[in-house]
């Protein structure tokens, strides 16, 4: 049986490093792709690939490099995002260029990555457990003020993952949108925990069948179902009440 391979796209020092360590400790070959990296095999055996997700057409080159150097990836993690914001009370002040810049990284490059991941999964033996995991947040469920450009790709990416899970999950090619929350359901934002993501992503990688594509989880308890909640605990219903709707 071939050694499994994980590809982590937009791998940083928090989530990317923790996920890489977890999978490497479980006998995975590891490939990390990010703008800050220099391409080559590292002393720890990881493959580093320098890439820029603002150019979606560069994404297939990432996969080609992994296939050539390590083998076909059976787990693909996409962490890419471009956190562009607006004044909380003026979401339509964002220029079209701002929307495009956020969408290009968070959705367009993710779409190409999902296409490439599916292409790879189809080449693997049926017994190989494969999964595409998109690192999301609560913005697919609630319109938190001030982050419209950042939110739109998350909403679309969640739909992308849902389509993938519906179409390919029963074939063994699994798709997940992962969203860490606080214990009360509020977003973790910049407090995302690398180890919590590593544990959850490894658990998802081991699933035999596609489970629910939307994966909300906490550090303490793992997978838990949550709806959209903002940082103050407001929901869509409380937004309606606030604005007299």
Automatic annotation (TrEMBL):
<dbReference type="Pfam" id="PF00106">
    <property type="entry name" value="adh_short"/>
</dbReference>
<dbReference type="InterPro" id="IPR036291">
    <property type="entry name" value="NAD(P)-bd_dom_sf"/>
</dbReference>
<dbReference type="GO" id="GO:0016491">
    <property type="term" value="F:oxidoreductase activity"/>
</dbReference>
<dbReference type="InterPro" id="IPR002347">
    <property type="entry name" value="SDR_fam"/>
</dbReference>
<protein>
    <submittedName>
        <fullName>Putative short chain type dehydrogenase</fullName>
    </submittedName>
</protein>
<keyword id="KW-0560">Oxidoreductase</keyword>
<comment type="similarity">
    <text>Belongs to the short-chain dehydrogenases/reductases (SDR) family.</text>
</comment>
